[in-house]
């Protein structure tokens, strides 16, 4: 193959090749091409983002620094630690939605149990195009079925998520999966370093096949005409195998049989072995002919790059191998020795006794290129126009919502997920925040955030909102946000404006996280979400985890009782009047809400979101108890505020509630909206609906994609 | 005082409600013990054996088909011959049908999709297993299955109906089950199974405590 073709095949450019050559001190050998190609890909090396991601270095006493590991950790006290992360699987899901989404779930789960934590919850963040766009219905259906088939079978509940529909995602859908794991008592946290010279290198899990070869470098490219041809790069998942792997891995970790362990994710055996070697500053002898394979025609290169699913690499003392093997056998799985750890910092790769290469792992991991790409910070700002609608305008606007995918009922999606396996789920995906019961009887909150329609108009505001909105959603339920994960989905970073969006997002998310004392402890970057030169809007999805320690009942999103008093509280974040942003101020309001919630039991609570107060009230009326409005201020009922909170309280607590409000930050910004009432949805005497009909209209809104499945 | 009820919980590879059921049994004050799918057990050992939900053997071939051929189910058949009790939940129901310990079969939901829902079931006929469950009462329980639609040929269905083997009926049929059937008995009333998950409705914060009555 001529040199230029080779560069193309391995998706490297001339300067990267020159750097590799300089580091190695000679031209690359045949087998070294795929190693550099995979480990220096954007997907594995974060070569474009690393300089910016340093901004996420803030940590607090709950979040020990374990950077470089598969996921971040939060110590909840009471001998409970959680591990969580969110990851993208956008490119594979667009090519093959079912397998792409399924293996996205599988991959993020492995990041969690490789650390010794039992996965207890899944969440997802999905962005689709218009349902009428080319292939879109199949993409939506395939992605949801993929997530459902994998998560349900592996026995981890999918408890929350967010789904967006926007034409900007017509040719680049986003599939981000988040997993949360739990370590209790003195269960050991497993790391990907810690092996000693002489340790065995052990391969466990499924056999290696040709699936996913070059997957990492594929995910580091834009789509063009040839996306169909990329199908063979997509991996195939087997959740049954993963379930066995979870049980077996947790057993060997908690019986203290392993020194280090890492899953084989992007770039498979290559990334796991080289990264583990580099992190511990030791070498490895790796015998590729010992890798269990599905297909005898596999070449050493394919074995190194295969992204076959459900595989892990672990290192153990030689004396412990028999016990490990026995445990894996019990679960019907194999454990094979590939080689051993050597003190010399060299990875030696053998194929039937032939030494294919020996190379310093740092050259591929630590010395990967770093790009300080040029960027231009976007300056566009959201202009909030104050609405003042009359009755008939409200009616028209409100009714128009039902037909827009943005307002569609999401229950046909989340009802395909097992939300209760594990018997920890207190609040499921019908609520804006999911809650799980912890062994200590405290409650773990999970929510995701990021509203692309804001990013389109204002990257700064969108980034703050991606953090604050889920944090506020938690606060109105009585939970304090503790830590965040992110999945930064962007277009082509080689374009100045895209790189500027990225830089601004990272800086602003980091700033908001620090203000809330909720560190960003893990994450993932997905660039090149671009087709035919057209990229997606900035979409940095946030996964937030919080804790609730109150003994009271968690407020529901829906009204559950008649005759409750419904109030709205306005938080002056971006006001119509000033259009200024003050995030320090926002933190004070968030604390105030937490304090209010401790004194007054909110029966129901919800943040005003899309469609403004009126649409939010309809969502709060989905269980059949609606509202009769008393307020005269109806002109802004469809305004999408930053931010407005709606709470329902018992009439007995109304006086105390008002006094507390008058003494605090909300003294000039609260309002009684109305009273809850069965089957009522009355705005004014003239503007009212039969709630049952509205609920039915909403319930069937996604029919065009999900058919009769309501 | 009589001795505590001895409950065995079978774990197949791919069972994923095993821990949930085990904890539920313990919470209800009974003695719980694991049964590994590769092991046999004595027909004297357990008063009740529970087959929890999940995806035994990855649902390969058909839900429950491979588990029905396991060593543990071989022992289960002797356990049943001794007149001892069995409860199957979700995938456990599918396994019991495949093992011919219960009549009928569970096929793919009418929606062709996995469904996670809350349902109300009404008790049609009671028996010595799950004896706290009351006839004609309604119970609110969650379902989570893709293959939960009960099916039996017309003759078999008639036999099930005529011999009072219908245990539970859905108030509102979620999946296209014949005759709204959510749970059935064997002819001897020693083996019963249901598609909903009582263990997921056994504490106040779970959204319903109606499942407690099933132990």
Tell me what you see in this structure:
The complex is a heterodimer of chains A (710) and B (215). Chain A is of the alpha+beta class and 710 residues long. Chain A is 33% helix and 24% strand. Chain A contains 24 helices and 27 strands. In chain A, the strands form five sheets. A seven-stranded mixed beta sheet of chain A has the order 7-9-6-10-8-11-12. A seven-stranded mixed beta sheet of chain A has the order 22-24-21-25-23-26-27, sandwiched between helices. The model of chain A has no long low-confidence stretch (mean pLDDT 94). Chain B contains four helices and eleven strands. The longest helix of chain B is centred in the middle third of the chain and has 11 residues, at 71-81. With 215 residues, chain B is an alpha/beta fold. Chain B is globular and about 40 Å long. The interface between A and B is medium-sized, with 30 and 32 residues.
Structure summarized in a few sentences:
Chain A has 710 residues and is α+β, with helices and mostly antiparallel strands.
Coarse shape of chain B? globular
Strand content of chain B: 25-35%
Contiguous uncertain segments of 5+ residues of chain A: none
Largest sheet of chain B: 9 strands, mixed
| Residues in β-strands, percent of chain A | 15-25%
Distance between the amino and carboxyl termini of chain A: 56 Å
Shape field of chain A: globular
Count all strands of chain B and give the number.
11
Strand arrangement, major sheet of chain B: 2-1-3-4-11-10-9-6-7
Instruction: Determine the fraction of residues in helical runs of chain A and give it as a percent range.
Output: 25-40%
Rg calculated over all Cα atoms of chain B: 16 Å
Helix content of chain B: 10-25%
Topology:
The complex is a heterodimer of chains A (710) and B (215).
Chain A: H1 3-9, H2 14-24, H3 32-39, H4 42-45, H5 50-53, E1 72-77, E2 80-88, H6 90-95, H7 97-113, E3 118-128, H8 136-154, E4 158-165, E5 174-184, E6 200-205, H9 215-218, H10 239-254, E7 260-263, H11 268-280, E8 283-287, H12 300-305, E9 311-316, H13 321-330, E10 335-342, E11 347-351, E12 354-359, H14 361-364, H15 391-401, H16 411-414, E13 425-427, E14 434-437, E15 443-449, H17 452-457, H18 459-475, E16 480-489, H19 496-515, E17 520-526, E18 530-531, E19 534-535, E20 539-548, E21 565-574, H20 583-599, E22 604-607, H21 612-620, E23 625-629, E24 642-649, H22 654-662, E25 670-678, E26 680-682, E27 688-690, H23 691-699, H24 703-706
Chain B: E1 6-11, H1 18-27, E2 31-36, E3 48-51, H2 71-81, E4 85-89, H3 91-98, E5 105-107, E6 115-123, E7 138-145, E8 149-151, H4 154-162, E9 166-170, E10 181-185, E11 191-194
Parallel strand pairs in B: 1-2, 1-3, 3-4, 4-11
Antiparallel strand pairs in B: 5-8, 6-7, 6-9, 9-10, 10-11
């Amino acid at each position: 193959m001529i040199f230029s073709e080779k560069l193309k095949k391995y998706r490297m450019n001339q300067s990267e090749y020159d750097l590799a050559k300089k580091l190695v001190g000679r031209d690359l050998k045949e087998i070294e091409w795929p190693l550099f190609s995979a480990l220096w890909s954007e997907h594995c090396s974060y070569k474009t983002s690393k300089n910016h991601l340093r901004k996420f270095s803030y940590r607090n006493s709950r979040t020990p620094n374990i950077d470089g590991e598969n996921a971040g950790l939060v110590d909840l006290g009471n001998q409970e630690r959680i591990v969580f992360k969110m990851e993208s699987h956008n490119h594979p899901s667009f090519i093959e939605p079912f397998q792409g989404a399924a293996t996205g779930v599988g991959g993020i789960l492995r990041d969690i149990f490789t650390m010794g934590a039992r996965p207890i919850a899944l969440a997802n963040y999905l962005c689709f195009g218009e349902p009428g766009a080319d292939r879109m219905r199949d993409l939506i259906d395939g992605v949801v079925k993929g997530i459902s088939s994998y998560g349900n079978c592996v026995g981890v509940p999918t408890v929350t998520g967010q789904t967006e529909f926007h034409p900007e995602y017509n040719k680049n859908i986003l599939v981000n999966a988040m997993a949360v794991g739990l370590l209790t008592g003195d269960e050991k946290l497993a790391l990907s370093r810690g092996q000693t010279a002489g340790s065995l290198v052990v391969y466990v899990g499924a056999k290696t096949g040709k699936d996913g070869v070059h997957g990492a470098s594929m995910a580091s490219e834009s789509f063009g005409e040839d996306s169909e041809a990329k199908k063979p790069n997509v991996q195939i998942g087997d959740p049954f195998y993963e379930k066995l792997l979870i049980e077996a891995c947790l057993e060997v970790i908690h019986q203290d049989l392993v020194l280090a362990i890492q899953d084989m994710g992007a770039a498979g055996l290559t990334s796991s072995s080289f990264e583990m070697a580099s992190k511990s500053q030791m070498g490895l002898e790796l015998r590729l002919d010992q890798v269990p394979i599905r297909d005898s025609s596999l070449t050493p290169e394919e074995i190194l790059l295969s992204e076959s699913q459900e595989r892990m690499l672990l290192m153990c003392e030689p004396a412990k191998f028999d016990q490990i093997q026995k445990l894996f056998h019990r679960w019907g799985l194999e454990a094979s020795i590939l080689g051993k750890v050597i003190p010399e910092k060299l990875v030696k790769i053998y194929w039937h006794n032939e030494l294919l290469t020996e190379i310093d792992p740092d050259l591929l991991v630590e010395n990967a290129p770093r790009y300080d790409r040029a960027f231009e910070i976007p300056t566009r700002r959201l202009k909030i126009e104050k609405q003042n609608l009359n009755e008939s305008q409200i009616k028209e606007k409100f009714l128009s919502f039902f037909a827009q995918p943005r307002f569609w009922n999401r229950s046909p999606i989340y009802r395909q997920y097992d939300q209760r396996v594990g018997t920890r789920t207190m609040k499921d995906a019908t609520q804006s925040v999911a809650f799980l019961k912890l062994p200590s009887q405290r409650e773990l909150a999970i929510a995701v955030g990021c509203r692309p329609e804001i990013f389109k108009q204002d990257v700064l505001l969108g980034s703050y909102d991606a953090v604050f909105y889920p944090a506020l959603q938690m606060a109105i339920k009585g939970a304090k946000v503790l830590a965040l994960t992110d999945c930064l989905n962007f277009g082509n970073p080689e374009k100045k404006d895209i790189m500027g969006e990225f830089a601004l997002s990272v800086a602003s998310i980091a700033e908001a996280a620090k203000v809330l004392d909720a560190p960003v402890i893990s994450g993932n970057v997905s660039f090149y979400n671009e087709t035919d030169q057209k990229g997606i809007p900035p979409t940095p999805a946030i996964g937030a985890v919080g804790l609730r320690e109150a003994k009271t009942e968690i407020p529901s999103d829906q009204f559950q009782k008649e005759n409750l008093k419904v109030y709205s509280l306005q938080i002056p974040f971006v006001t119509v009047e000033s259009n200024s942003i003050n995030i320090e101020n926002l933190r004070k309001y968030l604390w105030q809400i937490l304090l209010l919630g401790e004194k007054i039991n909110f029966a129901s609570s919800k943040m005003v979101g899309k469609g403004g107060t009126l649409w939010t009230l309809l969502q709060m009326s989905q269980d059949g108890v609606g509202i009769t409005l008393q307020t005269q201020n109806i002109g802004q009922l469809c305004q999408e505020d930053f931010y407005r909170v709606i709470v329902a309280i018992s009439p007995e607590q109304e006086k105390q509630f008002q006094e507390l409000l008058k003494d605090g930050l909300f003294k000039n910004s609260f309002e009684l909206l109305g009273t809850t009432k069965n089957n009522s949805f009355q705005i004014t005497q003239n503007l009212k609906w039969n709630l049952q009909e509205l609920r039915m209209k909403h319930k069937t809104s996604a029919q065009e994609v999900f058919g009769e499945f309501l | 005082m009589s001795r505590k009820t001895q409950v065995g919980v079978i774990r197949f590879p791919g069972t994923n409600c095993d821990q949930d059921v085990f904890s539920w049994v313990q919470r209800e004050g009974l003695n719980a013990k694991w049964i590994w799918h590769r092991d046999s057990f004595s027909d004297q050992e357990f008063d009740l054996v529970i087959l929890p939900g999940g995806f035994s053997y990855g649902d390969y071939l058909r839900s429950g088909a491979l588990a029905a051929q396991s060593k543990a189910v071989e022992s289960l058949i002797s356990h049943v011959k001794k007149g001892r009790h069995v409860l199957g939940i979700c995938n456990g129901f599918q396994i019991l049908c495949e093992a011919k310990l219960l009549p009928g079969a569970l096929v793919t939901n009418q929606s062709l999709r996995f469904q996670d829902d809350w349902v109300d079931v009404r008790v049609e006929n009671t028996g010595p297993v799950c004896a706290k469950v009351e006839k004609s009462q309604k119970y609110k329980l969650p379902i989570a299955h893709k293959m939960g639609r009960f099916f039996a040929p017309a003759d078999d269905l008639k036999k099930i109906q005529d011999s009072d083997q219908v245990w539970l009926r859905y108030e509102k049929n979620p999946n296209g089950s014949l005759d709204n059937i959510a749970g059935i008995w064997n002819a001897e009333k020693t083996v019963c199974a249901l598609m909903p998950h009582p263990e997921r409705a056994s504490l106040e914060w779970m959204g319903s405590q109606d499942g407690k009555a099933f132990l």
